[in-house]
């Protein structure tokens, strides 16, 4: 693949190759000397048009540890504020010969559009409610390491599914790897056409969590609710917030996941989120750096194998 725009086009064997390589980067990241020269001579530009802590920091660290020249564009301070379009901004940066563009944008499809206009590799760091492929890959790596496999698991994805690019990418990835996926949440926060996703749907959290191996919690993404139904946080926590009592419905060794950022006391109890016997939330963050290193490593191999495109 030239770009990583989503999970949709990836085959199961490609996902496995990526996760195997990510495991190697986990070891490198745990070593005293974390440097490699994999991206030496390459330029990586991070363009985040939406706030981020984990994704932005891990892409920056990943690029620097692999020897790339990494530039973080401050989109708040860019000429976007003077009315320049996304495409003109991307083409301007493209003229400076970057090799990797990492892009987050609030609009679904914006990263795909941008990828058609540039001649470097583009990585989708989250676009609207569409896809967040590196999040799904790091979730998959976390599950595989915790459970020893990434198939025939029962996985509950809970909360605001409708507005979640994390849910969308995870449903595709975990489905391709032949897991049983349950979507748990209020009907108002389920996407339209949910029946076609090949998942079981539950409105009752206690039923939805019964005997699952993995519980993946999601934040209420109010920034994408467009003035539609926003539940009361207190009522939401009562019905859908994960606490020890609701988790007791899952298997005794079920793991608790959350992509972050978390809203403690809204979708998850803070004590449970910090319980190192059940929660793998910090492991997810750690896997994020390794997965992003593996993604950029594989894209760089493709870049180096292709003749350099010369701009008109
Ligand atoms: N999970 C995730 O994408 O977190 P950030 O918004 O902090 O990058």
Describe the 3D structure.
One of its GO terms (molecular function) is amino acid binding. This is Aspartate carbamoyltransferase. The chain has 312 residues and is α/β, with parallel strands linked by helices. Helices cover 38% and strands 14% of the residues. The chain contains eleven helices and nine strands. It has helices spanning 12-30, 54-65, 86-94, 110-115, 133-147, 165-176, 205-208, 233-240, 244-247, 270-273, 281-305, and strands at residues 43-48, 69-73, 100-105, 121-127, 154-158, 180-184, 200-202, 214-217, 255-257. The strands form two sheets. The protein has a five-stranded parallel beta sheet with strand order 7-6-5-8-9. Helix 2 (54-65) links the parallel strand 1 (43-48) and strand 2 (69-73). Helix 1 (12-30) crosses helix 5, helix 5 packs across helix 6 (165-176) and helix 5 (133-147) packs across helix 11 (281-305). The longest helix has 25 residues, at 281-305. It is globular, with a radius of gyration of 19 Å. The mean pLDDT is 94. The chain binds phosphoric acid mono(formamide)ester.
Strand order of the largest sheet: 7-6-5-8-9
| Ligand set | phosphoric acid mono(formamide)ester
Q: Percent range for helical residues?
A: 25-40%
Oligomer: single chain
Q: Which series of helices and strands comes N to C?
A: HEHEHEHEHEHEEHEHHEHH
Instruction: Look at the helices and sheets and give the structural class.
Output: alpha/beta
Low-confidence stretches: none
- Terminal CA distance reads 23 Å
User: Radius of gyration from the CA trace?
Assistant: 19 Å
Main sheet overview: 5 strands, parallel
Strand content is 5-15%
- The strand count comes to 9
Arithmetic mean pLDDT: 94
| Global outline | globular
Count of alpha/pi helices: 11
């Amino acid at each position: 693949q030239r770009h990583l725009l989503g999970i949709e086009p990836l085959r199961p064997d490609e996902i496995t190759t990526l996760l195997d390589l990510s495991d190697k980067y986990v070891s490198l990241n745990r070593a005293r000397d974390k440097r490699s020269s994999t991206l030496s001579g390459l330029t990586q530009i991070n363009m985040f048009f939406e706030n981020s802590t984990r994704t932005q920091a891990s892409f920056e660290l990943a690029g620097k540890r692999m020897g790339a020249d990494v530039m973080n564009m401050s989109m708040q301070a860019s000429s976007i504020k003077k009315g320049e379009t996304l495409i003109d901004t991307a083409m301007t940066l493209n003229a400076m010969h970057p090799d990797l563009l990492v892009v987050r944008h609030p609009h679904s499809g914006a990263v795909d559009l941008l990828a058609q206009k540039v001649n470097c590799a583009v990585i989708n760091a989250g676009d609207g409610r569409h896809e967040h492929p590196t999040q799904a890959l790091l979730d998959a790596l976390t599950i595989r390491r915790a459970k020893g496999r990434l198939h025939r698991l029962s996985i509950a994805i809970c909360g605001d599914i409708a507005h979640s690019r994390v849910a969308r990418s995870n449903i595709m990835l975990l489905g391709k790897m032949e897991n049983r996926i349950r979507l748990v949440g209020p009907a108002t926060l389920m996407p339209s056409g949910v029946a076609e996703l090949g998942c079981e749907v539950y409105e009752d959290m206690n039923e939805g969590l019964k005997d699952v191996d993995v519980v993946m919690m999601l934040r209420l993404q109010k920034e994408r609710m467009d003035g539609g139904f926003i539940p009361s946080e207190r009522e939401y926590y009562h019905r859908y917030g994960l606490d020890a009592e609701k988790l007791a419905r899952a298997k005794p060794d079920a793991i608790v996941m959350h992509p972050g950022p978390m809203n403690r006391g809204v979708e998850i109890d803070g004590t449970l989120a910090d319980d190192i016997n059940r929660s793998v939330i910090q492991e997810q963050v750690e896997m994020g750096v390794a997965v992003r290193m593996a993604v950029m490593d594989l894209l760089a191999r493709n870049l180096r194998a292709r003749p350099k495109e010369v701009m008109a």
